[in-house]
């Protein structure tokens, strides 16, 4: 959903991008892998406020693609590398909650699966169409997912003792994100069925 606002967001980032004109976008991609690692470590250690700051720091991930497009440094490897690092980051962001015993694995595992399927169905669909179709359809893409993860930790931080049935605040958010991810994957499968 927020993908439709991407050009507007990037327009605000252009002044910042100028300072990275001489930097290889792949270097920025690699630097963007640091915040997810820090997030995982700090959540595991139950330093939740610092973990939230690290998650916000992952917004540096927006820079690599923007720098590449702005200064004509787009490469096939760059896109591949960025997508690969994003999947590693997603794993760290999501599983941190299970390893820290905040969210049960029974909720983490399906969320992780459908998060990966959301990305896979897009890349596989676009590959199958020969790049002619944009598969960025559905209600929950990566940006919304990261916002949801931020909120899951925030709600848990604010009221860890809260329970709805047996679910704590973070588990409730994970359940919602999983449902929305299932819907998104379904939307992409239907889109593929109609368009391919």
Question: What key phrases describe this protein's structure?
Answer:
Four Helix Bundle (Hemerythrin (Met), subunit A); 196 residues; single chain; 72% helix
Structural summary, described in words:
The protein is an all-alpha fold and 196 residues long. The chain has a single domain (2-195), classed as Up-down Bundle (Four Helix Bundle (Hemerythrin (Met), subunit A)), CATH 1.20.120.1760. The chain contains 9 helices and no strands. The chain has helices at residues 6-17, 25-31, 34-44, 48-57, 61-70, 76-99, 105-128, 142-158, 169-195. Helix 2 (25-31) runs parallel beside helix 6, helix 3 (34-44) runs parallel beside helix 6 (76-99) and helix 8 (142-158) runs antiparallel to helix 9 (169-195). The chain is globular. The two termini are 22 Å apart. The mean pLDDT is 92.
């Amino acid at each position: 959903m927020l993908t439709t606002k991407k050009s507007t967001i990037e327009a605000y980032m252009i002044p910042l991008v100028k300072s990275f004109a001489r930097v290889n976008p792949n270097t920025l991609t690699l630097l963007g892998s640091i915040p997810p690692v820090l997030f995982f470590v700090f959540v595991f250690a139950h330093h939740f406020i610092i973990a939230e700051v690290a998650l916000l720091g992952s917004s540096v991930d927006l820079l690599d693609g923007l720098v590449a497009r702005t200064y004509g440094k787009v490469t096939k490897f760059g896109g591949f590398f960025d997508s690969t690092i994003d999947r590693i980051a997603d794993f760290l962001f999501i599983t941190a909650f299970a390893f820290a015993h905040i969210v049960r694995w029974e909720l983490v595992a399906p969320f992780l699966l459908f998060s990966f399927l959301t990305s896979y169905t897009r890349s596989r669909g676009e590959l199958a169409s020969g790049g002619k179709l944009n598969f960025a359809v559905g209600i929950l893409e990566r940006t919304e997912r990261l916002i949801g993860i931020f909120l899951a930790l925030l709600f848990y931080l604010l009221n860890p003792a809260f329970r709805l049935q047996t679910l704590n605040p973070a588990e409730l958010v994970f359940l919602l994100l999983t449902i929305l991810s299932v819907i998104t994957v379904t939307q992409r499968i239907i889109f593929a069925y109609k368009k391919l």
